[in-house]
DNA sequence: TCATGTTAAGGAAACGTTTCCACAAAAAGC
DNA sequence: GCTTTTTGTGGAAACGTTTCCTTAACATGA
């Protein structure tokens, strides 16, 4: 059994409130008393009980990150950075993972009431039609990598990229190289307001702008994983529609797609060009290295945390920050139908 | 402000303890009263405050996972499965990430006192010479993927593979193919009691058994990431020691190594054989697919959680479970110096 | 009828904090 | 030398639960 504040007070021969004042650096305490208390704290290894603290405190200091899709390497890096940033500010931080299929914002509401949070960051998931739920949350909340478009923007913050614009950029790049049979792969491309859908809309917009007819047969719905990208690409190739380029809405998908292409005996980029999305390390170290739309993961993480703290301390009102992603060319895309000359 | 148990009691016209009995399903409550309380709970969306609960409760129900190295994809999958398993049992679950460089068990001690945990799972990190700290933890604790060898085994549990044995297996496989200049890459191979060290010892054992002299120049210390594996392999190749096979103590490293080999214009496996460790998805979808020692991640996760619950409920004493890993051959290893005939 | 047991429900203490309030002693202002 | 302020400290209420203890009503068995 560990010591509590009462024990410390008794041992140090002071009142409970004095101990509290010392460990919280509040109020006035004489140097002598402070030193006495601190030495007892040190000696008996006293750590304040957070449950009691949070229970009493009007406002807690607990910050949570709610993530859906923890297996996506793009997310793990952001998680790490967010953790670091929150830690730097000395706030208790915990990560919660919600399973695919469960509603993340319902889970968050429960969490806020249970754990007395003072701020929450969301990563992954979908949040439209959640206006009432956001209001119920009633604490500062920042959405990263996704936004809720049909929700009153003054009740939440977001730090994102413009998925539609960036997907448009990727597709436009393929078109500029001369491709017209461009496949698209994402999770739930037809489900309104998902990330996959926004990227799909960017893809469509680029096609339309260049008067390339949209062929639904070239769009595959798949999970954000290599295995899923692999099977989606096999299905696609089997359709025999003469695809010359693949735009995968995630690097994990792109890697599975590349494997399917290479396994089929085709060459990248001579037979098929591939571009991914996110900018994970593996896309760079794949062979061939894969072109991608690289998100500024670190900036997003940094900005999310600093925005959240500004909201918590009342130094800012809700806002929506949009970062630019960068098209990184590594050679997995080229003109169609022209074998590379060595 | 959300409703509390007192509000519910008042609105339902019953006592506080009755509400508590209803929501916890303890003691005797008449059907009529129960229904009345539940309808109020439903209507006012009452969620018990966990801080108060934990504060009062002799034994909490909080379970934490402490992970070091969240960016390793091998870990993310295990995290997901552990989360699922704990959730299934209805216990609150939180994930904590400790940064490289911080002591995970010190962080855990603080956490246990702060959050009133009833059980903890460790993933990654090192735990030797922590006997006193384990005792201080004083709650059931399960180490996954790593064990503390110099600590009294009765004060903690572990669910692991035998790193030395499996690394021996990998090295032996390369030797059996005819390789003698076998490089080894891991994180901290010379730092006692790390995972990297155990795998290094397995590598050494296999070499010794086959009377292959150990060449320290063939061992590279690197992080568990593709970029780190890439630069380590460049260093290695630049030494010009005629390496024909590479054993990377992690698939992430193996992928970086493969890229370095391919970038140097060499072929896998014709010029250099590569075998990794862990069994992550990316190793399979790399091109060429990489051989690996595949850990039974799911079984480890399942077994860790079920063991932890047995410990919490007193149905078991501390034990140490060792799973077997599997050598998966995908073609990235072959005899040295014999170009493949097509 | 009376003792006993069972079912149902409420009151109140306790968990470990923070914080408001009270109070004493010392310092300061006149 | 008196009031007023400042400094330093302790007591106790409150946070929202759980749980032990008590009480009350009612049924049971002799």
Strand content of chain A: 15-25%
Care to count the β-strands of chain A?
Answer: 12
Strand order of the largest sheet of chain A: 2-1-3-4-5-11
Overall shape of chain A: it is: elongated
Please characterize this protein's 3D structure.
Chain A has 342 residues and is α/β, with parallel strands linked by helices. Chain A folds into three domains: 5-48, Orthogonal Bundle (434 Repressor (Amino-terminal Domain)); 62-161 and 296-324, Rossmann fold (3-Layer(aba) Sandwich); 163-295, 3-Layer(aba) Sandwich (Rossmann fold), CATH 3.40.50.2300. Chain A contains 13 helices and twelve strands. Chain A has helices at residues 5-12, 16-24, 31-44, 50-56, 73-88, 104-115, 131-137, 163-176, 195-209, 226-238, 251-263, 281-285, 297-312, and strands spanning 62-68, 93-98, 117-123, 141-144, 157-161, 182-186, 219-221, 245-248, 273-278, 291-294, 320-323, 326-328. In chain A, the strands form two sheets. Chain A has a six-stranded parallel beta sheet with strand order 2-1-3-4-5-11, with helices on both faces. Chain A has a six-stranded mixed beta sheet with strand order 7-6-8-9-10-12, with helices on both faces. In chain A, helix 1 packs across helix 2 (16-24) and helix 5 crosses helix 13 (297-312). The radius of gyration of chain A is 25 Å and the shape is elongated. The model of chain A has no long low-confidence stretch (mean pLDDT 92). At the A-B interface, helix 4, helix 5, strand 2, helix 6 and helix 10 of A face helix 4, helix 5, strand 2, helix 6 and helix 10 of B. The structure holds a DNA duplex (30 and 30 nucleotides).
